[in-house]
Amino acid sequence: MEVQKEAQRIMTLSVWKMYHSRMQRGGLRLHRSLQLSLVMRSARELYLSAKVEAHEPEVPLLPVRSSDPRLHQLREAEAVSEAAPPDSEPPSPEPMDTREAPRAEETPAPCAPRPSKVSRKRRSSSLSDGGDVGLVPSKKARLEGGEEEGASSEVPDRLQPPPAQAEGAFPNLARVLQRRFSGLLNCSPAAPPTAPPACEAKPACRPADSMLNVLVRAVVAF
Amino acid sequence: MERERLGPWCSPTGSPAPLSCETGCGEGSWILVYRLLVPTQVSLLSMEEDIDTRKINNSFLRDHSYATEADIISTVEFNHTGELLATGDKGGRVVIFQREQESKNQVHRRGEYNVYSTFQSHEPEFDYLKSLEIEEKINKIRWLPQQNAAYFLLSTNDKTVKLWKVSERDKRPEGYNLKDEEGRLRDPATITTLRVPVLRPMDLMVEATPRRVFANAHTYHINSISVNSDYETYMSADDLRINLWNFEITNQSFNIVDIKPANMEELTEVITAAEFHPHHCNTFVYSSSKGTIRLCDMRASALCDRHTKFFEEPEDPSNRSFFSEIISSISDVKFSHSGRYIMTRDYLTVKVWDLNMENRPIETYQVHDYLRSKLCSLYENDCIFDKFECVWNGSDSVIMTGSYNNFFRMFDRNTKRDVTLEASRENSKPRAILKPRKVCVGGKRRKDEISVDSLDFSKKILHTAWHPSENIIAVAATNNLYIFQDKVN
């Protein structure tokens, strides 16, 4: 339990640092972001292994998720739609605007770059796809306080992806955080467990004021 | 290491003792020559402030309270003769110090460095396309070898490298026909005679002019620049790419290393430092965040993505910890003057590698191993991300690097002795002998020892420099520059 708590604390800290690094002068530092994501990943692995030992219900889903080919597609879709790759380095208050430009010029990713709006639409439409509904927490679900299964199942997806994917999530973290916080702020304190910040979130509103409280809530949730 | 008694290696009259002749690493042999406060900027770094109103205050302020974040020294570099010492700071300024000339009357005054030139190298910029601010902080300064009366140096911030020419002017022409002494145009009707302007001596003026600006070649943040031994080219390295420049050409550069993956999600390591071989103009090394060093030969191919040599030490499983990956990241890599060895600095150690042996370093020195159990706290306060530099002495027998609490460490490669010294205001009486410091790891703390928990992590020495031929070192402690020399000098 101690290990879990410590891992959670480290994760919270890492996420906070990632978010904070967007605010600093000079833009997002690639090396720093990479290091934070490494710590984040180690913390998640530690947390998960501690959880496995404690026989949490999400455990059986882990092997399934990791090998699910649909998951890769979905994750790539999320990654592309969430934010630009790290080399765009935009601490922009308007994530949607900056995302398009850098992505268009810099990402020869497997997924074709597409405008964020479109991808978000795709995401929500994919939510209605029954097969995937469990993988991605829906906006609706979060607001209504349901979909605990979905959210928590998303957690193991994120927490134990192939290393390459894990690295890829980190540049988007800060921006996703921003959106996630605003989402959480709108929820009641008894909100359902939300996926870790690496997951997709609803559209951006504004950064959370009580970031740490929200962070704690987010982390404790899973 | 056992505690050594303090004592100068030679008497004040200057008769040298054998040990200090060799290495200068003996305990008690370092004295403070000069403690300089880099001239303070009055303005702050806020974006709202009009840059034009920024003033540079050329007086030395002894009071810390005037120091702003802009004064934090971010790089220190001696030139090839050691006559000049350049510092760059977070405010984008370069301050060059010049060593006082030796005079028969004042033998002991040799070794003092005085301000020679100050100029604003980089200004804050704003990239409108990406909506991000480009810091003016000087990341690195590298001198070019002197080829005429003027001095040339390269200075870089995150995105732009500039070549500066620093030259002296001690004569000025007088006796113009069309202008009067103040420079005002004369009425041609009043000119009745012609004269030849003559050069008359004037007060020495040192002027710095930007001769080249190498911009728009880096998407990521530049971390290193290195002048090639051919003196015609240099390289600049950012997180993912290394570019080769010709000094004469500013609108083109060759990309010689590119480790950017096709899919950024697969990124696992970044370039952290790069340097050209001191003698072989085709060879360079670059270090990575994974603790590896790659040596590349530019003759092999235009794009040196495939290394010629790959230096990596297998990880010690007993040392594996949560933060292993972070602390293995190499923050600095330096060739020895001989070109035979490379030295790397990661968070806790300094390693010396033989170019002929790739599977492990030939020497490993623990800089502050007592921090290994504190990594979590250091992660919390961001200290674990500090990038320490390391330097060789002129003969490659001693290596030096910084630590916390304004400590810096020297390791003698021959005798295997090491010393911890402190650059502090309390000990900053000129010619005061530096007392070796010791950090107490646990148990009983002896007098004069400092416990790990009372170390001040805000006082860190990231940048140091060693004179190319003498035992004179420059240590940057936040906004202070300390110059120490071996007492023999």
Query: SSE string of chain A, helix = H, strand = E?
Result: HHHHHHHHHH
Largest sheet of chain B: 4 strands, antiparallel
Mean pLDDT of chain B: 85
Q: What ranges of chain A have pLDDT less than 50 throughout 5 or more consecutive residues?
A: 59-171, 180-222
**Oligomeric state of the chains in view:** heterodimer
Q: Note the main sheet of chain A.
A: none
Give the N-terminus to C-terminus distance of chain B in angstroms. 27 Å
Q: Cα-atom Rg of chain B, whole angstroms?
A: 24 Å
Count every helix of chain B, treating DSSP H or I runs of 4 or more residues as helices.
3
Strand content of chain A: under 5%
Number of strands of chain A: 0
Helicity range of chain B: under 10%
N- to C-terminal distance of chain A: 14 Å
Structural class of chain A: mainly alpha
The average pLDDT value of chain A, as a whole number, equals 53
Question: How would you summarize this macromolecular structure in one to three sentences?
Answer:
The complex is a heterodimer of chains A (222) and B (489). With 222 residues, chain A is mainly α. Chain A has helices spanning 2-21, 30-53, 61-67, 69-82, 95-106, 116-128, 139-144, 148-159, 163-186, 211-221.
Describe what this molecule looks like in 3D.
The complex is a heterodimer of chains A (222) and B (489). Chain A has 222 residues and is an all-alpha fold. Chain A has one domain. Helix content of chain A is 64%, strand content 0%. Chain A is built from ten helices and no strands. Chain A has helices spanning 2-21, 30-53, 61-67, 69-82, 95-106, 116-128, 139-144, 148-159, 163-186, 211-221. In chain A, helix 1 (2-21) crosses helix 10 (211-221), helix 4 (69-82) runs antiparallel to helix 6 and helix 4 (69-82) crosses helix 9 (163-186). Chain A is globular and about 45 Å long. By secondary structure, chain B is mostly beta strands. Chain B has a domain at 38-47 and 68-173 and 200-215. In chain B, strands 1-32-31-30 form a four-stranded antiparallel sheet, with no helix packed on it. A four-stranded antiparallel sheet of chain B has the order 2-3-4-5, with no helix packed on it. In chain B, strands 8-9-10-11 form a four-stranded antiparallel sheet, with no helix packed on it. The chains are: A mainly alpha (222), B mainly beta (489). Chains A and B meet through helix 1, helix 2, helix 5 and helix 9 of A and strand 7 and helix 3 of B.
